[in-house]
């Protein structure tokens, strides 16, 4: 009986660990975005699909891959030539949202934040920026999905 209980506990523990480490199994590879007209490189799952849309005033690129990897990239001209200012503007924008809960982490490229959609439903997102000349590259999670903090950390690292 003790051996069966131990085996059951071990099985549950292994399942919990493998579930919580799901994103660790997503292997990221360098992805050159030049074929989409963006002179930048990011990291993405090797099976990632890339969709491009030129909206005139900005370029919208979606990178989807294994797991919950769904990255949105916007490229546009800007007069703001300091990443610190871009971050402050983006923080102000997300903090004004009715769903904003808290900034989880922040560095010199952007920030990760939490949104409380309902009492029982939270989601995570990020904003990160790169500047090249007068072009701003803005990175965030793709819209319309729920992301864990680990999902967001993986995508944040992929663009920084």
Notes on the protein architecture:
- The chain is α+β, with helices and mostly antiparallel strands and 160 residues long.
- It has helices at 2-20, 83-95, 149-159, and strands at 28-32, 41-45, 49-54, 58-65, 69-77, 100-107, 110-116, 122-132, 135-141.
- It is globular and about 45 Å long.
- The termini are far apart.
Q: Say which CATH homologous superfamily is assigned.
A: Mog1/PsbP, alpha/beta/alpha sandwich
State the strand order across the main sheet. Answer: 3-4-5-9-8-7-6
Strand content: 35-45%
Tell how many strands the DSSP assignment holds: 9
Distance between the termini: 51 Å
**What fraction, in percent, of the residue positions are helical?**
25-40%
**Oligomeric form:** single chain
Q: Could you tell me the radius of gyration in angstroms? A: 19 Å
List SSEs in N-to-C order.
Answer: HEEEEEHEEEEH
Indicate the mean pLDDT. 87
Helix/strand structural class: alpha+beta
What is the general shape? Answer: globular
**Number of helical segments?**
3
């Amino acid at each position: 009986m003790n051996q069966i209980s131990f085996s059951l506990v071990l099985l549950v523990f292994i399942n919990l660990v493998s579930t919580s480490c799901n994103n660790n199994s997503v292997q990221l590879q360098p992805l050159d975005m030049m074929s989409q007209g963006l002179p930048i490189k990011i990291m993405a799952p090797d099976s990632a699909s890339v969709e491009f849309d030129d909206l005139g005033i900005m370029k919208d690129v979606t990178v989807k891959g294994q797991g919950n990897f769904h990255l949105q990239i916007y490229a546009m001209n800007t007069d703001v030539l300091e990443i610190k200012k871009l971050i402050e503007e983006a923080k102000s924008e997300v903090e004004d949202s009715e769903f904003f809960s808290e900034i989880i982490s922040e560095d010199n490229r952007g920030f990760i934040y939490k949104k409380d959609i309902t009492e029982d439903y939270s989601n995570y997102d990020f904003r990160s920026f790169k500047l090249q000349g007068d072009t701003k590259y803005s990175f965030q999670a793709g819209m319309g999905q729920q992301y864990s903090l680990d999902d967001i950390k993986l995508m944040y690292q992929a663009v920084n």
